[in-house]
Amino acid sequence: MEIVSVIITTHNRSKQLINAIESVLKQTYKMLEIIVVDDCSKDNTYTVMQSYLEEFSNIQYIQLKVPSGANVARNQGIMVSKGSYITGLDDDDTMMTTRISTMMKYLKDDYAFVCTEVYYQITKDFRKRKNFKEYITLNDMLYYNHAGNQVLAKKESFIKAGLYDESIVAAQDYDMWLRLILDKPKAYCVQEALMTIDHLDTHLRITTSKNKIKGYIQVYNKYKHLYSKQQRKSKLLRLLKLREKDISIERIFQLATFHDYKSVIMIAIKSFNTKSSKHDI
Predict the structure, then answer these.
(1) Count of structural domains, the chain
(2) Strand 152-154, strand 85-90: pairing
(3) How does pLDDT run across 79-88, given as a tens digit for each residue?
(4) Do residue 163 and residue 267 come from a single domain?
């Protein structure tokens, strides 16, 4: 059985970090290494981690000396990892107990990576399942991120792809998956939700929300030479959506592709509600 290294990046969220670590320790796949990379936390993360280090020999703890961001933290974790396979977890997310064993079961040599469907925790009492395509191609990924924020792949694949791009301020995961799938142009998504992603919006992640648009523009510029005309239109529509621009219905349908039907519906509803509100005033 091969070792899987789980990279958990964290910043000032010790309470959530405990839940993340515990969800990995409960995995049915037992050949695991947990590497927590701390991006200069000012809370009691250090104290929390000392307790884990005393109890578990398969946990490593790395403290970055200066605030460096998620990409640097992930790369530090990958480079010190001992596993043949790498997966990740944000400090405020959790895995179902069979996530890693299931991904390892489905991973094949000709797959760029394996991922699973996920749950989004929208409120304390409500979570929404996010479905992904079962077989993911490079063409799919050039439209948008069909894999979510975490995948499992060989360590050598991450290194061959050049690790996480430390110049990108957001959408770093999407950029990484694109480079993985450029090398092996298909991936697999387990049709089962095996991770819960925090969408409560009660705090900021390591990559701050103000950088979100900038990060997507960076990724767009990095891969625009690969986009078809339809993919360029789709990207522009998504950037306009991120910027929360008041987009006309005509403009929406000029840019929309089949892949964008959900975005089109959301933008159209928002536009209609905005115009109705203005009319009421």
Answers:
(1) 2
(2) antiparallel
(3) 999 999 999 9
(4) no
